[in-house]
Specification:
The chain has about 550 residues and is an alpha/beta fold. It contains 22 helices and 17 strands. The longest helix is centred in the C-terminal third of the chain and has 36 residues. It is elongated and about 115 Å long.
Length: about 550
């Protein structure tokens, strides 16, 4: 029996990659603790008010004491009035108004997987005007798949896949993983070959190159490859068609001869469209940033419903884009990669997707542990609710004082015979603190994912002027080819993707569009936009 037991024994070896302070739960606890320990900007205002409030109340108490002495009251009665003023106006509620709401708001965020690193980030998130979203891994799943393989004349599928795999296997880009994953799953003969790549180069935002034996292999975007090798017109057209479908065409060449195209598509997350719609309902402008070519980017942008697409952005260019967007209002950047870290830092609020890199998470002000884009709108919603709760708390703190101080000072005795015993003043002061704390605890009942009560933030601005104070311009276009409401919607969406267009009125019946512009937009750009949508501009006025 003992022998059989020993035979059944198994040895299991575990290796812990993160222990103690490095575990996720420890980091969550630390972030919540740090946020509770910091002060929100509105708390600093409350501190300044308290700094004035305390000497003013002491002065009122002294004036009350002296006033009643002059009025003929004995010292005991005058002192009672003065003490009542001091007791009822104790600024406990004022001191509790902000930190309690911040603490409860942070707790609610943590409970729903939204980690606010500071009290300031919890307050400022609700004031965001623009949200910039990285495409890969944020709007899309970040796990693209190979959808099309198109070989150039004179080359076979294996020629294309071997060359593509030989250099993509050395890259860490999500598109590279799609190609290598396809080869591994579908072409074991190509996967099992030995490759000896030398002089490998990853050209950020463009493509890859390397030497495989005696052959020079290059691969990348249509724009990059067009400047490197001769791309036949028919292959260029196919690449453009794939891009219009929302796919990313990757071109590969061997010894400067085009082998073909491998198209890769990164499907948008299920909740991306819902998240963008919720942000729109809150009055937030949504911008998508990507290094992809413009056609592919616009196709993804249309699916997600974003307001503006900024394509062809190199990794080091995202920070510059955020700096430019900040000229139009408060900006939040949402990303998950190492390349997003400078932009996350530059933005007013940096939001990291929890499944992203450690560098992105460290650079951000908010971490979304569940990696859901709907948590961006939920974070804004929670921030606004917390700020509203703080305002309510400040109201209760001042309301008791405005009512209580004149009553304690005996102002209403002559008119109504009202007076206030210092003991009742102490009770009223305690009640004000109770109201503040209870009101803050109401945040625990707040539904962070309920979008039914979302309201747009009202911004004071001149609707007839752009951000530089210049008057808006209108352009009237006559457009050929629009036949129905679908055509009308397509043209309208194409115009609304342009940053200079603040409003677009399109009518397929009149064959006309009226654009309201906040900045300079050339007639050539307008014509190209309509052409890409599949129609033709006949005149611009």
């Amino acid at each position: 029996h003992s022998t059989s037991r020993r035979q059944r024994q198994m040895c299991i070896r575990d290796r812990a990659t993160r222990v103690g302070e490095d575990t996720t739960i420890s980091q969550i606890i630390q972030m919540v603790s740090d946020a509770a320990a910091t002060k929100a900007p509105i708390a600093k205002i409350a501190d300044k008010v308290s700094g004035v409030f305390v000497p003013v109340v002491i002065s009122i108490a002294l004036i009350t004491f002296i006033g009643w002495l002059i009025a003929g009251e004995n010292v005991g009665s005058a002192l009672s009035y003065g003490i009542a003023v001091l007791v009822i106006s104790c600024p406990c509620a004022l001191g509790l108004a902000t930190p309690v709401a911040i603490m409860v708001g942070n707790g609610m965020g943590a409970k729903n997987g939204m980690m606010f690193k500071t009290a300031s980030s919890l307050e400022e998130t609700g004031k965001i005007d623009i949200v910039a979203l990285d495409k890969t891994g944020t709007i899309t799943s970040g796990e693209p798949k190979v959808t099309d393989i198109i070989c150039a004349d004179g080359f076979g599928k294996n020629d294309l896949l071997e060359s593509a795999y030989s250099i993509e296997m050395l890259s860490e880009h999500p598109l590279a993983k799609a190609v290598t994953g396809y080869v591994k799953d579908n072409k074991r003969d190509v996967f099992n070959k030995k490759y000896n790549i030398t002089e490998f180069q990853a050209l950020a935002g463009n493509g890859l190159s390397g030497i495989n034996g005696e052959d020079k292999i290059t691969g990348g975007s249509l724009k990059f490859m067009s400047n490197t090798v001769n791309v036949p017109k028919e292959m260029e057209k196919k690449a453009q068609e794939l891009a219009e479908q929302g796919k990313t065409p990757l071109l590969f060449a061997k010894n400067d001869k085009l082998l073909g195209i491998i198209a890769v598509a990164d499907v948008i997350k299920e909740e991306s469209g819902q998240a963008v719609n919720e942000l729109h309902d809150m009055g937030v402008r949504v911008v998508m940033l990507t290094g992809d070519n413009e056609r592919t980017a616009k196709a993804i942008g249309r699916q997600a419903g974003v307001d503006e697409v900024i394509a062809g952005v190199l990794p080091d260019g995202k920070e510059a884009v955020i700096r430019k967007l900040k000229e139009s209002g408060k900006v939040a950047m949402v990303g998950d990669g190492i390349n997003d870290a400078p932009a996350l830092t530059r933005a007013d609020i940096g939001i990291a997707i929890g499944a992203g890199t450690d560098i992105a998470i460290d650079a951000a002000d908010i971490v979304l542990m569940k990696s859901r884009l709907t948590d961006v709108s939920a974070a804004i919603r929670l921030s606004r609710a917390t700020l509203r709760n703080i305002h309510e708390n400040l109201f209760w703190a001042f309301f008791y004082n405005i009512i209580g101080i004149p009553l304690a000072a005996g102002v209403w005795i002559q008119l109504f015979g009202w007076t206030l015993n210092p003991m009742f003043g102490a009770a009223a002061m305690s009640l004000s603190s109770f109201c503040v704390v209870t009101n803050a605890l109401r945040l625990n009942l707040f539904k962070v994912y309920d979008a039914s009560h979302d309201r747009k933030r009202v911004k004071k601005h001149d609707n007839n002027k752009n951000s530089k104070g210049e008057k808006n311009m209108e352009k009237t276009l006559n457009i050929e080819g629009m036949m129905c409401g679908h055509c009308e919607a397509r043209v309208k969406k194409a115009f609304e993707a342009l940053p200079q267009v603040t409003e677009a009125e399109v009518s397929h019946e009149k064959k006309q569009a009226v654009l309201t512009l906040s900045g300079e937009l050339s007639d050539k750009e307008i014509k190209n936009t309509v052409k890409e949508a599949g129609y033709k501009v006949t005149s611009i006025k």
